[in-house]
Amino acid sequence: MKISSKLMLIVILTIFEISLTLWSVFEISNGVKFHELNLNHFKYSSQLTHQVSALSADHNIEISELRAVVLNIRQQPIDCLDTINVVNKFIMEFIGTDNAIALCVQDIKDADHALSLINKFENETIDKDVFLSKLKTLAATFNQTSILFEEPVSKTLAFIMKVMIPLVVVISLFNILFISFMSNTITRSIRHAIKLLNHKKKKISLSDDISQNLSGELKVLLQAAQKRITSEMLMAEVNKKLETLVEQRTESLTRANQELSQFAYRTSHDLKAPLSATKILTRFIIEDINAGQLENAVQDTQHVHDQMEKLEELVVGILSLTEADSTENKNSALDLNMILDDIQQRLSGITNLSDYTMERHINLDHVLVNNQTRITQILENLVSNALKYRDTKKSALPFVKITVSELDESHQLMIEDNGIGIPTDRHDEVFGMFKRFHPKVSFGSGLGLAIVKKHIDYLKGTINMETSDQGTKFSINIPKVIV
Question: In this structure, what DSSP letter does residue 482 have?
Fold first, then answer.
């Protein structure tokens, strides 16, 4: 086999391994999306239950609100069925969790039935008591569907993680062994050539020796090298380069496998915590209601809501991180003031606009052209951190200062705040995944700065940080986009 053919086999195996790794990450991301859809389904089902109860108590509930909630419930199984691909379906059938698909189909039918009841009630073709009774039954069915859907989805996701991650590791090890084997065969061929070159024959010239005893690329290679350099030096250099390539690839694969394992472990651990807490709280709520302690039930319900917000923030962070590499690289002229206005509006839930100041200093000679999605996520994550970790003990009003400047070959973005800063002994962890430095001050997914770093790396930029108890400053340089 020719050396080029052997190297091509190595390339093909490497491409297959990378493709399998990416597919595994995509399937895990799909599993997370199924959980998100089920959480939304549960949320809307709870809203429907609340509205039916309110309508039973003769409270004023608009029919349009009921219809909107049922449509939202119906959309979740539709999105779920759209997300399930052929591979997902095969896996579900293989491990016996394909009843999740049937649950989605039945859920759509139940939603259609609920919409039909609402239309009949609106047209006064059905009695109110009958309408409420049937709608209450459907609301309970929707809640039960959310509970039943969780087990097969969790089992499917667990199966993918348990099977695919070890499979990727096994294929990586096989790839390493195969590369080593190919390297050895190539090395043996080279050594055979060196032996021929070192073997002195009186009646046969070096060119004749190569022609008679070598073939393929080595023959061509040595015939060309004979005119430029001694064969021993050439063979040593080729061998050295091949060994270096094997070492670099081995190190890269090992690091990638370690990062994937850590990501899967931390993700599953952080997703499990709020779900477990919610499960316990719902049991407390049932006990409080049965005991007539409605005030305690309300408090526990608020705790459930808080846990769901934590879970939602974590899922959104994971999705943002996984989508950071797949965001389309479409560049356009950016209106930074409009982007910052939108960010400030979206973050109004963190603190009131009157509780802090946002300074903007945009010093540009030309319009900034870049990827709007990536620039927006960079700014939003850094501004969000500044607001979450503001120092309420300082007498000065919390502030966020954003400065955008134009340099010769890049644009510089500086985001400063007077918050509580980041502990000195943890500066080297700032851009790692799932890193939380002040969990008692504000709960976060620990992915914000990792997302920022991933976007900046994609844009081939750099980011530096200065932090102390007086505040934090991030300095970002992004190369200019040539239009």
Answer: P
Any domain includes 249: no
Count of helix runs (H) and strand runs (E) in the chain: 12, 7
- The string of pLDDT tens digits covering residues 450-463 is 878 888 888 889 98
Question: Same domain for 49 and 140?
Answer: yes
Please indicate, yes or no, whether residues 286 and 370 belong to a single structural domain of this protein: no
Task: Indicate whether 193 belongs to any domain.
Answer: no
**Cβ neighbours around 84 below 10 Å, total:** 19
Same domain, yes or no: 356 and 305: no
Q: Residue 373 is part of a domain; what is its CATH number?
A: 3.30.565.10
pLDDT at 433: 54
| C-alpha to C-alpha distances, 167 to 17, 24, 85, 170, nearest whole angstrom | 10, 10, 20, 5
Query: What is the reported pLDDT for 112?
Result: 93
Considering only CA atoms, which of 361, 172, 146 is closest in space to residue 259? 172
383, with CB counted inside 10 A (0-12, 13-18, 19+), is buried
Whether 227 is covered by a domain: the verdict is no
| Domain end (from 300, 323, 346) | 323
Are residues 316 and 339 both part of a single domain? no
pLDDT tens column, 57-97? 877 778 888 899 999 999 988 998 888 888 888 888 888 88
| pTM value > 0.70 | no
User: Which of 323, 356, 383 delimits the end of a domain?
Assistant: 323
Half-sphere exposure for 200 (CA within 13 Å, toward CB): 1
Looking at the structure of the chain, the number of domains it has is 2
Q: Which is more confidently placed, 244 or 412?
A: 412
Query: How far, in Å, are 8, 24, 28, 244, 250 from residue 173 at the CA level?
Result: 18, 17, 22, 18, 9
Are 279 and 338 found together in one domain? no
- Interstrand relation of 399-406 and 462-468 (parallel, antiparallel or unpaired): unpaired
CA distances from 228 to 193, 205, 223, 237 (A): 17, 17, 10, 14
Burial (CB < 10 A; 0-12, 13-18, 19+), residue 58, is exposed
Print the domain residue range for 131.
Answer: 3-175+255-323
Same domain, 295 and 339: no
User: Closest by alpha carbon to 447, among 23, 24, 20, 32?
Assistant: 32
Greatest Cα pair distance, the chain, in angstroms, is 113
Nearest CA to 476 out of 458, 457, 463, 466 is that of 463
| Contact (Cβ atoms closer than 8 angstroms) between residue 275 and residue 311 | yes
- Residue 426 in this model has a pLDDT that exceeds 80: no
